Amino acid sequence: MTVKRIAAALVGIGLLASPGHARAEEITIGFTAALSGDFAAFGLNMRKGLDLAVAELNKKGGATYRIDAVDDRGEAREGVLIAQRFCSDKNVDVVMGYSFSSIALAAMPVFTECKLPVLASAVTSPALSNVSPYFRRNVLTDAVQGAMAGAYAARTLGLKSIYVLNQQDDYGIGIAKSFSEAAEKGGAKVVGSESYLLGAKDFRTLLTKVRAARPEAIFIGGFYTEAAKIAEQARALGIKAQILSTDGALNVDLVKLGRDAVEGMIVYGMFDPAVATPATEAFLSAYKAAYKEDPSAWAALGYDAGMTLGAAADLAAKDGPVTRESLNAAFGKLKDVPGVTGPTSFAPSGDRAGALYFLAVKDGKFGLAPKQP
Hints:
By secondary structure, this protein is of the alpha/beta class. The protein folds into two domains: 2-140 and 277-333, Response regulator (Rossmann fold), CATH 3.40.50; 143-269 and 357-368, Response regulator (Rossmann fold), CATH 3.40.50.2300. 44% of the residues lie in helices and 18% in strands. It has twelve helices and twelve strands. It has helices spanning 2-12, 40-60, 76-88, 101-114, 142-156, 170-185, 204-213, 224-236, 252-258, 278-291, 297-317, 324-333, and strands spanning 26-33, 64-71, 92-97, 118-120, 135-137, 161-167, 189-196, 217-221, 242-245, 266-269, 357-362, 365-368. The strands form three sheets. It has a five-stranded parallel sheet with strand order 2-1-3-4-5, with helices on both faces. The protein has a four-stranded parallel sheet with strand order 7-6-8-9, with helices on both faces. It has a three-stranded antiparallel sheet with strand order 10-11-12, with no helix packed on it. Helix 6 (170-185) links the parallel strand 6 (161-167) and strand 7. The longest helix is centred in the first third of the chain and has 21 residues, at 40-60. The protein is globular, with a radius of gyration of 22 Å. Residues 1-24 form the signal peptide.
């Protein structure tokens, strides 16, 4: 924050003390996510949403915002190195982004040490709840989302037998556990469960077990890349079960990769352009004008994170210069900041409350599933 610190120093010696002279504030966002590789869609979409928010905030006048973006390539070691870089750069006031919970978990001790606030938009592991007084996220946790999805499958859809597949990592394991517990509590039976490695391409051995169990539905606790392949190979093996998956599969690339095999598949998320409301119309129009495409849930969460930062910066500025500490304190005081994914407030754990939409693929596009909770 070079500009603001110079301004603060000048105030201290009386050079900017004249009435009506506005203090210049420059807020630097350290943005990090997987911006390349198989899972780049999450990070790139978050960045697009954040860019849109920053453009709007800069049009308002007052504080100016800039982004320093770094690709963590989905590697925990990179995440720690990037955290050290952001911490040592005194211009960086807040960190945003994060595609993977494991990378955020590895980085948080570094951010806690240097007291640099983090507002993440795509990391859902319950292990991040209460991880640090400097961590917050505007996406629901796996425990919350999995429980909502499990209850939806059993109670809303009335499914009685479900086979659970999940990727072998914190995200997949956590979501599968929460889903299974809620589904069984709702009256369904989990007739089998199997894990697979992220990046796997051949699921026929797993799916042969699924076919033998004859479930009404398959729940895939994983990302769009593997979910598309699982759906494609399941249909090729003659499995006609209803396929359900997560917000990690809510991506246009799911349809591009899975084509006809994902038709009828149901996923969940906190936002989709198919669910247009008066509160989202301006965002949808601005995003389409900027990028010539519809926004994903990750773009919407990135946008809301940016606008939440703007609200926190405005609140912090009421008491003096905007610093890492004053921003962090302001995040804790925010209440119901309006957004396209709903209002944002943070619990002391750093988590956010909210609701999910359930969406189905129909004619190659996501739309509201016929049955909602």
